[in-house]
Every structure is written in C-alpha cells, then in structure tokens.
Design a protein that fits this description.
This protein has 79 residues and is α+β, with helices and mostly antiparallel strands. The protein contains 2 helices and 4 strands, in the order H-E-E-H-E-E. It has helices at 9-12, 32-41; strands at 20-24, 27-28, 48-55, 58-65. The chain has a 4-stranded antiparallel sheet with strand order 2-1-3-4. The longest helix is centred in the middle third of the chain and has 10 residues, at 32-41. The chain is globular and about 45 Å long. The relative contact order is 0.22.
Length: 79
C-alpha cells in the first residue's frame, strides 16, 4: 500500500491514494521502475513533472514539481 505525504508535491497537486499514473510527459508507463526512469529523465528535484492520471473512470492531466523524497520521510528519533 502506498500513501501520499501530507505536505508533499502530490498532495499539493490533489493526487489521491488510488490514482493510477498512466503517463509521464505523455509517455506511457506500466511499471514503477518505468515511472521513476521517466521522472528522473526530466531533471533534478524541483523540475515540473506532467502526469496523466486515471481516477474512477476519468483520465486527467496534472503537473507536479518533483522533490527530494528524503524531505518527506520520517527521520529516526535520537535519544
């Protein structure tokens, strides 16, 4: 199961858990590895990523600015 970081780029673009990424910048993707390859090919963190999503029978486009995912991961708690 995946989720959306509450203050992350996907949440700001109103992407929801369960949305299916169909394409990145018009190029179809069918695997997670393919998705990452397409996003990384666009440039460094902060670049605009055009996505085509599928939700509840509707296909639509959104634009998300990529970000370094380490900013949204929980850091270990130190004593």
């Amino acid at each position: 199961m995946v989720g959306i970081a509450p203050k992350g780029p996907a949440a700001r673009a109103e992407i929801k858990t369960g949305d299916v990424v169909v394409a990145v910048k018009g190029d179809l993707v069918s695997t997670l590895a393919g998705f990452y390859r397409k996003v990384w090919a666009l440039g460094r963190a902060g670049v605009e990523v055009p996505l085509t999503l599928y939700r509840e029978g509707v296909t639509f486009d959104v634009r998300v600015n990529s970000s370094d995912r380490a900013k949204f991961l929980k850091a270990p708690r130190l004593h």
